């Protein structure tokens, strides 16, 4: 049913559940799987007192952590017989996920939910909620 599936992974513990769902969906069909992780491309402008080299190092560490997470997720899927591509993006997670899904014609987006509720969820927003509301294709939210 879904030939192109995008899996948006995060550092949260939900990643293993996402990968398990991906295996279930892709195992019976030769779906093209894209593992995507988004890291920040800036650090808050409110941190003007922090030296710029420190901020650059922080962004580089976040990018390295993102690439490591993608590598680990790819290894898990490969052990299940699925050979995904990995994509590292920078910027606002919801925007980048939606943009990549549209540009590449994804037919399904699999994304995790951290379960933010109440005031915290209202104030911080939810990447999975934004993606599910604005996506052009079906979205599977894994809790």
Features:
143 residues; alpha/beta; five-stranded parallel sheet; Universal_stress_UspA
What's the helix and strand layout?
Elements: E1 4-8, H1 15-26, E2 32-39, H2 52-79, E3 85-90, H3 93-103, E4 108-112, H4 118-124, H5 127-134, E5 139-142
Parallel strand pairs: 1-2, 1-4, 2-3, 4-5
Helix pairs in contact: 3-5
Notes on the protein architecture:
This protein is α/β, with parallel strands linked by helices and 143 residues long. The chain has a single domain, classed as Rossmann fold, CATH 3.40.50. Helices cover 46% and strands 20% of the residues. The protein is built from 5 helices and 5 strands, in the order βαβαβαβααβ. The chain has helices spanning 15-26, 52-79, 93-103, 118-124, 127-134; strands at residues 4-8, 32-39, 85-90, 108-112, 139-142. It has a 5-stranded parallel sheet with strand order 3-2-1-4-5, sandwiched between helices. α1 (15-26) links the parallel β1 (4-8) and β2. The longest helix is centred in the middle third of the chain and has 28 residues, at 52-79.
Task: Explain briefly what this protein structure is.
The protein has 143 residues and is α/β, with parallel strands linked by helices. The chain has five helices and five strands; from the N terminus they run βαβαβαβααβ.
Biggest sheet descriptor: 5 strands, parallel
Under the CATH scheme, which class? Alpha Beta
User: What is the succession of H and E elements?
Assistant: EHEHEHEHHE
Overall tally of domains: 1
Indicate the CATH architecture: 3-Layer(aba) Sandwich
- Count every helix, treating DSSP H or I runs of 4 or more residues as helices: 5
Round the Cα radius of gyration to an integer and report it: 16 Å
Q: Outline, from the CA principal axes?
A: globular
Number of strands: 5
CATH domain fold name: Rossmann fold
Portion in helices: 40-55%
CA(first)-CA(last) distance: 22 Å
Query: What is the averaged pLDDT score?
Result: 87
User: CATH-wise, what's the superfamily?
Assistant: HUPs
